[in-house]
Every structure is written in C-alpha cells, then in structure tokens.
User: Fold these one by one.
Assistant:
Number 1:
Amino acid sequence: MAERDHPHGEGASTALAEPAWDIARIFPGQGFWSEQEYLDLPTNHLVEFSDGQIEVLPMPSPAHQRIVRYLFRLFSAFVDTRALGEVLFAPLPVRLRAGQFREPDLVFLAAAHRDKDRAKYWAGADLVVEVVSNDNRAHDLETKREEYARAGIPEYWIVDPLNGEITVLTLAGDTYREHGRFGAGSEATSVLLPGLAVPVAGVFAAAEGE
C-alpha cells in the first residue's frame, strides 16, 4: 500500500487512507453497549441506540434539512405563543424505553411533562415528526411507527417527500390510527395541538429553498 510523508514529522509515514481501526477497540462490541456509553459517544453523525446496538443513520440532505427547518418554525411559533411546551430538533436523543433511543427530526414535549427533560436526552415525547429518507423508508414508515406507539407517544407525523404527503397518526391504545393523510392543496392538522395547521405545499416547496 502506498505511503506518504506524515504532516507532523519529517520521515514519518502512514498508510494512505487507512482507517484507524484500532480505535474501535476502545468501544464495546455490538450488543454490549450501555445507555451511558451511547450517551457519551462523541460523533458528528446521527446515531441511534437499540438493545445494545449502535445504528448510524444516513446524514440528512439539504432538502431534508430545509423541510425540518420549515416545520420547526411553524411548530415552534404555535407552541411558544401559547406556552404549550417546547419543540426541538435532531440531534436530540429521545428515550423510548430501557435500552432504546431514537433521534426524531422534530420533537415536542408538553409543559406538563418537563420532568422528562434530562441532562443528555428527553425521557419520552408528546409528538414526534420524521421526514422520510429514501435511503431507508421502512425505518420511518414501519419500524418507528411501531416503536413510537409502544413508547406511548400520543402523535406521530410522517412527512414523505417522495409521495408529497404528510400522514398524521394519533395513538389509540397501543397502536396508531390515521388522523389524516394530507396532500398538496391541503393543510395537515394535529389532534394533540388543536388549531395547528401546516400547509403541505409549503412544506415541500421549502425542500427546494422556495
């Protein structure tokens, strides 16, 4: 393998583009991570944690982030003016149960539940929003739908740029039922936050920077 001069010393060399594999030895093996080791993990990637395993998520695209920014502004303005609680965005670990954390794109915690606000994570949420990634559609459409329902999160919004739709799910027992599937020309509404109306066309126009 080719070598090159090391920038920190004349004559020193290192294998070109060879990852520092040995650094992985300082971390636990898959299946043996603890919650605290996950929370202490230094990384510039979005990382989730489920039953001892680390799941590295695809980095969001600019279009994805523009949608999240647009939604955050609408949700935050609605919540803040009514002193209903707090809206935040990823990266923010949300603990669904013992041994599982997820990183919703947008998350709302009601003022009455401020005791769930911990130093490094939120111990639950009242509403979560996920913008579907085409790299792993099933993660948001199926896996997280089941996980958020089991965690007792009252409302889950699925924003799907591919289909141009926003699906709002509300908790009924331990599963979600569909409050509404909203397309272009309509406004997505909330059960948990009555009066909140999100123009669907505006959401997907935001993806293009409009």
Number 2:
Amino acid sequence: MAAWYFGVAHLLDYPAPYSRPIYRFGDFNAGQYASRNAAFQQAVTQASGIPLALDGDLLRYDHGEPAREPGSTELAVRVLARRIDASNDEIRRDLARGGAGFEQTKVYARVFALVDAPGKPAPRAVLPQIPLSSPKITRPLTTDWFANRVQARYEACLKRA
C-alpha cells in the first residue's frame, strides 16, 4: 500500500504547469518536469538549429551532481547567448533550476520568445522521447508510448466513473 501511495504522490503531488495529464504520465516515467524541459529543448533546437534529444535533461550529470563540463542542451543554449542576452553563468544558473520555477527564469522566457509566433506559441510541454529498457521489455518502447498507454487507461477510468 505504501508503494502505491508513493507512486501516486510522486505523480500528482508537485506543481506542474501542464494543460493535460498525459504530461504528468510522461514525467512519472522520465522525471518530474521532464515534459516541460523537453519542450524547452525542442524550442532550443528550433531557435539554434542544433538537434537535441528531447529527454528533459537540461544539464549533464556526473554521479548525481551537475557536471563541470556543459552537456548538449547547455551548449545549444550558449549558442543563443547573444540573442537571449545571457552569459554562460546565467545560462548554467537558470538551467540548474530545471525543477519547479524554471519557467520563471530569464533563459526560459527568452528562448520561448525567440520561437513563439504571433498567435501561435510553441508548446510548453512535449512528451520526452526516451527509450525504455528492461529485461522484461522485448520490443522497442519509449516514454511517449508509456505516457499514451497510461492516458488511455486514465480516460477509460473516467468513462467508467
């Protein structure tokens, strides 16, 4: 029972700026705010032309701590530094706030300002595209597949209620 409660709390008990629950389902599999961060990575790719993996990881980590060397997302944002009027230190600081409150940072706001079209803002959440692996998984599956599967079950439960 405790494990079930922990899973539900992990899924629902944090403030997430999502318009649809499917993004929380993606976060459950990929990490809190991964869907929001993947949308940021997509915006960085659009603004910089540098393809990024939409995995929700804004910094590179080494043994659970941010690595000294920048990762691919940080390097791509640095390419935009002049356009978003941000130093490498500001970029690192804002990316390190990749949890709650990241959408209030200068870097987040200015990257989206580059890609938002009048009347058509860029998505603020996309499902992370992370391959899933396990000895029990025998075919190629992704976080996207997982989130859509949970969404279908969620909708079925709502219809029964």
